[in-house]
Amino acid sequence: MNIKKPEEYLAFSGKYAASQAVRDLSPHDLQLILNLQSENAAYMRQDSYNALDRLFARDDYPLIDDTLILYRGGKTSPKDPRDYISATVFPAIAQDYSGDDPVSTITVEKGAKILPLRALHRYAGDGEGEIIICTRHLIRTIYPRRFMYR
What we know:
alpha+beta; Toxin ADP-ribosyltransferase, Chain A, domain 1
């Protein structure tokens, strides 16, 4: 599945926003996850990762229905010291973040757990098509700057 338009991203995010797991997030955990967008919140990063771990660990958290293609500007590695990173469904957004560096492509397999940031808040991730993924599920392929996510 390739999401090409903002309205497709909004519809895709709606499944997650409507899930019981997301609706049950405490205001505190919700704020911790949203704080990952801010580099100023680096001191809270482990608390934010713990909130995401709790969310992804729920049995009722929705799994992705189909393969999804994501793009990431900047360095991408399964060995990233951060537990979670963001990618986007829009290649142009990834290129903006990447500058002159090539963009990485991440193929998310059916059944994986991801978090469209837009699912958490009506303003979060708007326009960027931002998806949060867990770095320990990234797998480098034999092709440069191409990854699988399970």
